[in-house]
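Re: [ENG-882] Designed sequences occasionally contain unexpected residues at chain ends

Forwarding the minimal case from QA. C-alpha cells:
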C-alpha cells in the first residue's frame, strides 16, 4: 500500500473535487473547491476519504479487505460498509440492481459506475469521484487506482450508474 500522510487525509475531509495529476493519482495539495458540509455531502466525503486511502492496495479476486486485497465489488462493498454502515450485495451485477438508476450526465461523487469488462454487462464496478474519474480495483496484477472514464477502454465499456441512498 502507498503511504498516506495524516495531513493529506485531513485535507481531503474538507474539500472536493480532488484535482488529479497527469497519471490520475490524487494530488491533495491542489484541491480546488469544497464539498457541501451538509446532507449527502458529509457521508460522501467520508466514503471518498476512505476510498482514496486504499489507493495502492493490491487486487485479489474475491478479496474483501485491505489485508487480503480487493476485487472490484469487494472494494465497493467494504467501503460502503466501513464508511457508511451500508450493506451492499457481493457482486457488481447484484450491485447494479440496488439504488436508483442515473444518467451519465447526472453523476455525482459517491455514485456507483458499472462497466462490461468480461463480455457481460455490469461485470465491473467502481465509485465515481467527480471530474470523470472513478476509483476501482482493476484486475489481477493491479492495485486500487483512480482512472479516467473518458479513457478509450472505459468509455467503450460503460454500462450505467446507480445512486445508493446514504
Amino acid at each position: 500500500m502507498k503511504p498516506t500522510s495524516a495531513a493529506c487525509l485531513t485535507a481531503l475531509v474538507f474539500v472536493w473535487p480532488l484535482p488529479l495529476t497527469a497519471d490520475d493519482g490524487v494530488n491533495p495539495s491542489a484541491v480546488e473547491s469544497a464539498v457541501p458540509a451538509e446532507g449527502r455531502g458529509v457521508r460522501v466525503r467520508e466514503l471518498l476519504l476512505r476510498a482514496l486511502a486504499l489507493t495502492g492496495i493490491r487486487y485479489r479476486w474475491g478479496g474483501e479487505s485491505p489485508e487480503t486485497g480487493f476485487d472490484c465489488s469487494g472494494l465497493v462493498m467494504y467501503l460502503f460498509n466501513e464508511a457508511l454502515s451500508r450493506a451492499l450485495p457481493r457482486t457488481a451485477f447484484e450491485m447494479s440492481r440496488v439504488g436508483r438508476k442515473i444518467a451519465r450526465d447526472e453523476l455525482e461523487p459517491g455514485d456507483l459506475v458499472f462497466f462490461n469488462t468480461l463480455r457481460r454487462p455490469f461485470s465491473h464496478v467502481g465509485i465515481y469521484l467527480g471530474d470523470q474519474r472513478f476509483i476501482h480495483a482493476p484486475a489481477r496484477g493491479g492495485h486500487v487506482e483512480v482512472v479516467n472514464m473518458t479513457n478509450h477502454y472505459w468509455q467503450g465499456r460503460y454500462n450505467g450508474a446507480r445512486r445508493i441512498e446514504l
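QA comment: On inspection the terminal residues look reasonable. The beta strands are 64-65, 69-70, 100-102, 112-115, 124-130, 133-136, 145-148, 158-163. Proposing we downgrade this to a documentation issue.
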